[in-house]
Amino acid sequence: MSTHLLLSMPILWPLLGVALCCILWRRPRAQRIVSLAASAGLLLSSVALLAATGDGTVLAKQFGGWAAPFGISFVGDMLSAAMVVITGLMAVAVGIYGLVDDADSREAALYHPLYQGLLLGVTGAFLTGDIFNLYVWFEVMLISSFGLLALGGTREQLDAGVKYVTLNLVATTLFLICVAFLYGLTGSLNMADIARLLPNVENQGLVTTIAVLFLVAFGSKAAVFPLFFWLPASYHTASAPIVAIFAALLTKVGVYAIIRSFTLLFDLSQGFTAPIIGIIAVLTMVSGVLGAAAHFDVRKILSFHIISQIGYMLLGIAVATPLAIGGAILYIIHHIVVKANLFLLAGVINRAGGSFELKRVGGLYSTLPWLGVLFLIPALSLAGLPPLSGFWSKFVVVKASIDAGHALLAATALAVGVLTLYSMLKIWNEAFWKAAPAESTAAMQRWLTDAGTRRTMLTPIVLLATITLTIGLMAEPFVAFSLRAGEQLLDKSSYIEAVLGPGAQRTAEARP
To answer: pTM of the entire structure?
Structure first.
């Protein structure tokens, strides 16, 4: 397959899904077929992209009829290809789950076009090689996610949507201002060209200031401390499939943007950005896990855990060795699978137990022991217990921190893991182990009589649990891939030369 098709097909599938679902807006069942087919197409085309870049090859294509740096660049390397694959996987898994669980009410309000629009924005953000187009994809993602968040039209959802969209609009505006500053310094919007030119800018103090502003803008998207308040205020208002795709992808796009900009555009070894990221990582881990420990609503506990786990990813970026960056990549892959699965399980707990509130649920293990096992797999993986996927990702990040002399960061990561285990066991004890309240028993009877809904909701949960076990029990290829991807990110020359051509970086270094 040509480079043109490899880089454009993952974008074209969700774009086609948006268009066809809008045309079929009066036919919800036809939209389901189109949406699932587009998600499957995204997954298959992204696997082809990963196969072409898995050996370290960087693919680049300029669209619009102009050569780089003036054309619209799309770039696929190991990290971006892996992120697009995991996006396609989540699109299919959550798409299947979304066929039930109040599907009719969602589909009456343009669920499928917005769902495909979200996938379009996320995929575009992972593959773009242009800093302004990254802003455009963020806007596509923001509009679609706001529409999905407000689908029910309840007062609580609209209030959450306003908080969500307000902070994100502020973040994207700040991002746009940063883009203008970068253009003023380098005269380019192409990320490879900016990476080539930025080291030659005389005023490196201004470059460091722009780097910190980028960190604030992307940190808001990633829900880092102290900019995370929009996430626990909004995620618990959405239905299970919507919040699952949010939990899997939205904050990870922010983390991806931080990794990409602080490995390609800015130098973490200079200035004070790395210590700042390290401090933010610690505060994000601690504040997130304390929030999870304090709540008794399953969705709020899991929402605060998203925040604390983002801290682990930032920890890898702050340490910035090849091992640490590789650990951050492995952590992102593991966390997307595990967190999406936990929110899908939260939807099942609500259906089978009658509520998301732990005080009103109980007795699930005595009736549905296999559901308890399915919950324990992602829950214990999130806490980092061996041999699950979370253990290996935490192990690599903590080892990289100790090797680089950051023992305090490593100790904090281990302590947060213990508190994560505590809050996961709280869900287990309340929802699965204690005796069932009367309303929970009634919900269980309704759940047991609806075999079709059970099969549809549990199929993606089993699939994601299997992936978690696979990463944990056969970790070597996943760890090796992540480490190679980390090394590729820290050697920016291959990215620059793939976009601008051989010798481009040497030309910039030779400038007086």
So the answer is: 0.95
